Amino acid sequence: MDIKILGSGCANCQRLEAATHEAVDQLGLDASFEKVTDVAEIASWGVMHTPALVIDDEVVMSGRVPTTEQLKELLAR
Which of 6, 15, 49, 52 is packed most tightly, with the most Cβ within 10 A? Predict the structure, then answer.
């Protein structure tokens, strides 16, 4: 599984990254993580509000920080 965290590195971006790592660990998934901070690259994903979460090249949410439980649901799809 390939996971990207899109955002400038703000507090919400850091919270999303930490919660996503926690959800991946709880599910026992094998995932690689990448932080994308370049504004042009973030825009190329069609994201207007950060932080955003990309799983296997699909933007699954943006503009908020979901709970660990919500992230586990997104990751289990």
Answer: 6
